[in-house]
């Protein structure tokens, strides 16, 4: 499954940001800014952005931690990482970001390495959610926070129906127009499988996070899981 998802993201890399705009009604930038704020990253920190995609969250983290900090952006799609590198090179001043191709289920970092972490629209696509949370817990320093943003199925049936109409009626046809119908048709099944709210909190507790809070946003069509590794 992971190889299949990896090839999907490699293929959508050229239009990834454009599709995220359509998928989130243009709001994903606001939600990403919220996630960075909830991560509590501060100047001078060493921060991690998992499933970094084309670099949105990593670039926001870099602005927050400043020239004395360091950000690591991790993704398994070389094409998306290449886009992220190009974007960061166009920034002024140049952000201190290291881009790494790696698997979030087996991170190439030491224990207790990071002061803060984010993940945007990635947890839903990993093949082993508890293992990815466990790895996140391992690499965070005691006292560090992480904020995990993703799409959800809302519990409200009318909103759920609206979300499905929006996916079927707008996002998939647009993807089809761009020759990416198969790539974006996987979104609905991935939403159906994805644990939300209390289930995410329970999974976070199981891997060791003493404090975990889930914030539903966009009428429950989106959510941010904020976890804290207590000292």
Question: Could you explain the architecture of this structure?
Answer:
The chain is an alpha/beta fold and 231 residues long. The chain is built from 10 helices and 7 strands. The chain has helices at residues 2-12, 16-23, 28-38, 56-65, 78-89, 129-139, 157-177, 181-185, 187-193, 198-207, and strands spanning 46-50, 70-75, 97-101, 114-120, 140-151, 211-217, 222-228. Strands 3-2-1-4-5-7-6 form a 7-stranded mixed β-sheet, with helices on both faces. Strand 4 (114-120), helix 6 and strand 5 form a beta-alpha-beta unit. The model has no long low-confidence stretch (mean pLDDT 86).
> Radius of gyration from the CA trace?
17 Å
Helix fraction, binned, reads 40-55%
- Form type: globular
Spatial arrangement of strands, main beta sheet: 3-2-1-4-5-7-6
Taking the alpha carbons of the first and last residues, their distance comes to 36 Å
The major sheet is characterized as:
7 strands, mixed
Approximately how much beta-strand content do the residues carry? 15-25%
- Write the element-wise H/E pattern from the N-terminal end onward: HHHEHEHEEHEHHHHEE
Task: Count up the helices.
Answer: 10
| Annotation, overall tally of beta strands | 7
Taking pLDDT < 50 over at least 5 consecutive residues as the criterion, the unreliable ranges are none
**Helical/strand content category:** alpha/beta
